[in-house]
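Is this the right way to post structure tokens for a design question? Let me know if I should format differently. Anyway, here goes:
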């Protein structure tokens, strides 16, 4: 089943964030309804040009005409001459970026209010505490567009920002100084029962990657090393069923259950589901316990220690992972 967020994030990277009538017809069943139910997709008026519903291979301007039953809409078609166009064939939808920003802030349990920094382009979602210091979490879209300098200025003015982007990372020379941690939502966020959910390890991995790049250090477990660990385990056990250790190593390295499952599938030659990784993380005690096993000084701390923080709410509160 396609995650509704899989179509939401690419749509946010278009300048208008508008879904034309013909595009929605290619979405998996129930996807648009789910996004509308969450308030992430809202009506955006009618399109002036539509794809011909008869031929399906040309766009034409919609013409209104009065008739016995009232106003009717149609297009001129070279093959069919005059083709009626229904309301659904003209109806457009648009991403409610403000609602998306609020949903992300809630998913990350940030302090403070959501604030729009650049109109429909950049939002301050709130603040978190990582490593004992406050950091702003920013949502930015269109960092690859020609006019992205204004958004870059808003990000630079934030306090030690962590930047969330829908799908597109900016060019390598976009940041004049050290780039901030960047979290790609298409790899880290999914649509759950209550709305948008973010894998906490993906956020932490982005922060660590930025820190490692700035100080020249290398990650503790490189992708090549991780691949070797998985291949050795399969060869030793003469089977493709992985142990929890391999699931957890892949999860720590790749930052999300989905990405870890895709990596393990490529290494084993068999389909490994994200649910299998999720269950392994849950058996290990949840995200906080898995991370603590890697680094006892992790910024993701158990609930008991979070209560003693003096710098506001933590980014993630440790809790058991829900059943899927």
């Amino acid at each position: 089943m396609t995650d509704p967020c899989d179509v939401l994030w690419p749509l946010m990277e278009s300048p208008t964030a508008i879904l034309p009538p013909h595009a929605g017809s290619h979405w998996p069943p129930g996807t648009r309804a789910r996004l509308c139910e969450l308030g992430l997709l809202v009506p955006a008026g009618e399109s002036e040009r539509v794809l011909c519903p008869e031929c399906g291979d040309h766009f034409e301007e919609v013409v209104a005409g009065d008739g016995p039953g009232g106003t009717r809409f149609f297009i001129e078609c070279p093959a069919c001459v005059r083709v009626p166009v229904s309301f659904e064939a003209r109806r457009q939808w648009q991403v409610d970026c403000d609602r998306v920003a609020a949903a992300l802030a809630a998913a990350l349990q940030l302090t403070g209010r959501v604030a729009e920094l650049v109109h429909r382009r950049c939002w301050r979602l709130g603040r978190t505490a990582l490593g004992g210091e406050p950091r702003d979490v920013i949502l930015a879209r269109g960092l690859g567009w020609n006019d992205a300098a204004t958004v870059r200025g808003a990000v630079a003015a934030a306090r030690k920002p962590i930047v969330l982007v829908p799908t597109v990372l900016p060019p390598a020379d976009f940041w004049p100084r050290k780039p901030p941690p960047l979290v790609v939502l298409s790899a880290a966020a999914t649509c759950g029962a209550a709305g948008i959910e973010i894998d906490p390890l993906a956020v932490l991995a982005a922060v660590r990657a930025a820190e490692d790049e700035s100080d020249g250090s290398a990650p503790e477990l490189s992708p090549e090393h991780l691949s070797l660990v998985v291949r050795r385990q399969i060869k030793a056990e003469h089977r493709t069923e992985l142990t929890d250790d391999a699931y957890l190593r892949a999860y720590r390295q790749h930052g999300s259950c989905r990405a870890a499952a895709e990596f393990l599938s490529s290494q084993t030659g068999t389909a490994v589901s994200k649910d299998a990784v999720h269950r392994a993380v849950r058996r290990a005690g949840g995200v906080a316990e898995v991370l603590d096993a890697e680094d006892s000084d992790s910024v993701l701390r158990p609930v008991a220690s979070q209560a003693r923080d003096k710098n506001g709410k933590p980014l993630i509160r440790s809790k058991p992972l829900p059943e899927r």
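Format looks fine. Someone answered above. Worth noting: The longest strand covers residues 122-130. The longest helix spans residues 200-215.
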